[in-house]
């Protein structure tokens, strides 16, 4: 059978038709059909055709049609046009289309004796194959033969392919041939090597390579040294002694005259200079001697390199990176930062972006040097390129300190006003952090945060509202000024929900200051109680208000019932929302209605102003801070506040009582001796309960750290004031000693049967009253406990009366109830303190 695959030209075919008569009819027909098939189009024509495609679908159709023709040609074993077809396939691969079916065809081209076929075959192997595919192992023998080829160009192709996609197995098999070529005098071959494995075999030859005059050999040698140093710490230590030789090569490059062979835009071989600088950076890192040896040459490169062309900027950038990575002198580092500062004035956006990124990396170590370019960095905030603006914004925040806080915040707030929405969230967060860290005064801090909320309130972080509330609460002298500013902001715009929430909270807390006009920082405004209530009621019905904002507004109105005289109007508003379709708002209204009806005597204490909340920016215990019914996590500084009447060390004593780790303590405060300070009752109600399960006691008047779900936090799943259903639980005596008797009676709370309501009855059989009476309790981690306010802090003598106090215990796991109690009182002028453990609770109380 005659092979017609290689017969494509028409004239020789006609001349040989006389030889075809002996073939049977079918074979002759197939052969004639193949002879009439048109030749495949050239690569240039394919590129021109694809570029004419108007849509992606049209391009895909062209590619699929050509791929089908190429597959047919591969199946027919067409040797004549295999090279052309693989070249077209590589172009399609560059466009992102699959070309894996041409891998074996590349191997066939490599095995060809033609140099043009080998060139396309090796190129295809480098693009379509890698060391993870087993097909590449079939090339090992071909590459070995070509490494021993008599033509240097074929040897160069094999070396390039081996360095590009050679696996460890292939490198081990061909290491001997590569070593032979490394020792040859042909510079064309010596600069083609790249062998990442078997480094020790090539160690002796590396010293001689750096002595070569050929720049191609030098460039490849530096690349080899860089690879070896990055892969092996031993090689890194070995090659550090070559630093003087590398410095000498680099010096010759920058001091040499014009060389047409190596000149690029007036600079001698910038590619080799960049490679040497990169190798010096690796060798000088964390090494004093090597860094000292290259300081002078780095200074020469930095000062003598022309910056008018992009080639010089590339060398300067590598020089800056090298200076920053090695242990360079301080003056040299300042020079490097000044180079980056000049980059910021370049018209090329890429160079400006690179400069900003590099300055951002060095600002922590060379802060003062970077500060000199602050004005140029701030100007980059006005750049049209979004990447440059983002880097400039990050660098600007990194430059903020106590000395420039006012000026930098002015620029950043101006940027916040005009920047795109995608920047507002990050910019607002940065302003919050910088203001919190470097604020020169409380008023400036509050004004800055309010400016951010007014400008970008919808983009701020979730914790901005509680953080600002905490800031306002702690700034006692600024309450009147703050509530007046927020009230004005509320009149202007209610679309910024975080601002509206903070304003509602402040009006609820300090509405009396707003109405009284006691502001000293600026001219007070005249506002009536009805006007304030009108604004808050407007927030409740506004379509712009979120459910959270409505909750803030309703709570603010409720708090104003103890600060304003119009209680009846407030009752009407609260009762209306008792049937709201918003479950959250409805629950708040129901609880507040219960306050008006059943617990009106406790309302002034419950709705008193929040105490000062301490917060530390450093790492500390994360706890829960209550802000007007909104629970927000924050970092609370473990700082003791002055107690009301009980000693400071009571909390520590309770920890001693509890054993430290296995219980959840709840500290009950004493009743205040002065009626004016009713805030103690609020703290008594809330208690200091840690949801984490660990002990978290706090002094008498500290802020409540957390609360279980059955507390009235406005967001809880269970209301505080449930109807109490009587249950057949027998009473018990928990304590009877020194004339003081403590009895427990039990009830069940509806609708949650997991909550046991325990009422203590304290009686005194001695002849003198027990004053300053305090009852404290703690339960294990699996329980949650809440102490309500006692009826009095004086237990009458001779059993003439009792002091009652309610304890609510949440027992979701139905475990046996255990409790440790601590009793403190004063009898006949002498303080008395006693501890006891109660373990004999009736089963009905916890089952």
Could you describe the 3D structure shown?
With 847 residues, the chain is of the alpha+beta class. Among the domains are: 462-607, no CATH class; 732-845, Immunoglobulin-like (Sandwich). Helix content is 51%, strand content 11%. It has 36 helices and 14 strands. Strands 6, 7, 8, 9, 11 and 12 form a 6-stranded antiparallel β-sheet that branches. A 4-stranded antiparallel β-sheet has the order 5-10-13-14. The N and C termini lie far apart (97 Å). Residues 1-36, 187-197 and 616-727 have low confidence and may be disordered.
Radius of gyration: 42 Å
Strand content: 5-15%
Overall mean pLDDT:
76
DSSP strand tally? 14
Pick out the low-confidence regions: 1-36, 187-197, 616-727
- Characterize the main sheet: 6 strands, antiparallel
The separation of the N and C termini measures: 97 Å
What is the structural class? alpha+beta
Helical residue percent? 40-55%
- Count up the helices: 36
- What characteristic shape results from the CA principal axes? elongated
């Amino acid at each position: 059978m005659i092979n017609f695959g290689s017969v494509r030209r028409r004239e020789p075919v006609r001349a040989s038709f006389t030889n075809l008569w002996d073939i049977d009819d079918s074979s002759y027909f197939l052969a004639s059909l193949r002879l009439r098939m048109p030749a495949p189009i050239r690569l240039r024509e394919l590129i021109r055709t694809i570029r004419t495609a108007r849509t992606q679908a049209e391009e895909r159709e062209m590619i699929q049609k050509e791929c089908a023709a190429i597959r047919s040609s591969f199946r027919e074993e067409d040797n004549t046009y295999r090279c052309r077809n693989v070249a077209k396939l590589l172009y399609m691969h560059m466009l992102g289309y699959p070309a894996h079916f041409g891998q074996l065809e590349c191997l066939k081209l490599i095995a060809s004796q033609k140099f043009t076929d080998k060139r396309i075959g090796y190129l295809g192997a480098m693009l379509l194959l890698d060391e993870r595919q087993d097909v590449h192992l079939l090339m090992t023998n071909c590459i070995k033969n070509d490494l021993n080829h008599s033509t240097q160009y074929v040897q160069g192709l094999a070396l390039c392919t081996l360095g590009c996609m050679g696996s460890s197995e292939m490198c081990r098999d061909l290491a001997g041939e590569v070593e032979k070529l490394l020792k040859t005098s042909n510079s064309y071959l010596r600069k083609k090597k790249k062998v990442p494995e078997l480094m020790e075999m090539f160690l002796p030859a590396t010293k001689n390579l750096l002595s070569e005059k050929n720049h191609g050999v030098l460039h490849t040698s530096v690349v080899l040294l860089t690879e070896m140093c990055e892969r092996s710490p031993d090689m890194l230590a070995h090659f550090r002694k070559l630093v003087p030789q590398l410095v000498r090569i680099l010096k010759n490059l920058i001091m040499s005259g014009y060389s047409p062979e190596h000149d690029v835009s007036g600079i001698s071989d910038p590619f080799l200079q960049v490679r040497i600088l990169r190798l010096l950076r690796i060798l000088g890192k964390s090494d004093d001697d090597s860094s000292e040896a290259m300081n002078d040459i780095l200074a020469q490169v930095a000062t003598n390199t022309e910056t008018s062309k992009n080639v010089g900027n590339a060398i300067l950038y590598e020089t800056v990176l090298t200076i920053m990575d090695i242990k360079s002198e301080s003056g040299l580092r300042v020079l490097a930062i000044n180079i980056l500062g000049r980059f910021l004035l370049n018209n090329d956006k890429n160079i400006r972006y690179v400069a900003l990124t590099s300055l951002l990396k060095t600002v922590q170590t060379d802060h003062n040097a970077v500060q000199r370019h602050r004005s140029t960095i701030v100007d980059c905030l006005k750049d049209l390129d979004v990447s440059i603006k983002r880097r400039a914004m990050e660098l600007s925040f990194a430059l903020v300190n106590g000395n420039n806080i006012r000026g930098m915040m002015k620029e950043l707030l101006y940027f916040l006003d005009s920047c795109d929405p995608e920047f507002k969230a990050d910019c607002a967060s940065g302003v919050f952090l910088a203001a919190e860290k470097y604020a020169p005064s409380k008023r400036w801090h509050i004004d800055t945060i309010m400016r951010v909320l007014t400008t970008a309130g919808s983009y701020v972080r979730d914790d901005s509202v509680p953080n600002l509330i905490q800031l306002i609460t702690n700034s006692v002298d600024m309450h009147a000024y703050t509530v007046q500013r927020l009230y004005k902001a509320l009149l202007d715009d209610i679309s910024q929900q975080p601002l509206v929430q903070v304003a509602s909270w402040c009006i609820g807390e300090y509405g009396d200051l707003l109405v009284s006009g006691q502001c000293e920082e600026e001219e007070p405004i005249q506002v009536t109680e009805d006007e304030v209530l009108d604004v808050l009621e407007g927030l409740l019905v506004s379509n712009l208000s979120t459910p959270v904002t409505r909750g803030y507004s309703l709570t603010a109105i409720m708090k104003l019932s103890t600060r304003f005289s119009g209680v009846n109007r407030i009752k009407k508003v609260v009762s209306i929302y008792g049937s709201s379709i918003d479950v959250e708002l409805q629950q708040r209204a129901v609880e507040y209605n219960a306050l008006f009806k059943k617990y009106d005597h406790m309302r002034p204490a419950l709705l008193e102003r929040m105490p000062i909340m301490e917060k530390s920016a450093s790492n500390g215990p994360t706890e829960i801070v209550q802000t007007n019914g909104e629970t927000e996590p924050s970092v609370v500084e473990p700082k003791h506040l002055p107690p009301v009447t009980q000693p400071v060390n009571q909390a520590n004593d309770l920890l001693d009582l509890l054993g430290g780790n296995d219980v959840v303590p709840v500290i009950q405060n004493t009743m205040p001796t002065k009626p004016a300070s009713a805030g103690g009752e609020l703290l008594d109600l809330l208690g200091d309960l840690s949801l984490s399960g660990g002990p978290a006691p706090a002094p008498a008047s500290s802020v409540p750290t957390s609360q279980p779900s059955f507390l009235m936090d406005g967001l809880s799943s269970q209301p505080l004031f449930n109807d109490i259903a009587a249950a057949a639980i027998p009473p018990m005596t928990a304590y009877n000693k020194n004339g003081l008797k403590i009895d427990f009676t039990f009830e069940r709370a509806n609708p949650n049967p997991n909550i046991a309501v325990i009422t203590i009855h304290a009686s005194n059989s001695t002849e003198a009253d027990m004053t300053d009476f305090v009852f404290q309790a703690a339960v294990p981690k699996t329980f949650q406990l809440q102490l309500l306010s006692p009826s009095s802090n004086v237990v009458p003598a001779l059993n003439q009366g009792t002091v009652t106090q309610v304890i609510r215990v949440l027992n979701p796991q139905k475990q046996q109830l255990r409790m440790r109690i601590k009793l403190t009182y004063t009898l006949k002028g002498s303080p008395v303190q006693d501890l006891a453990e109660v373990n004999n609770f009736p089963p009905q109380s916890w089952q």
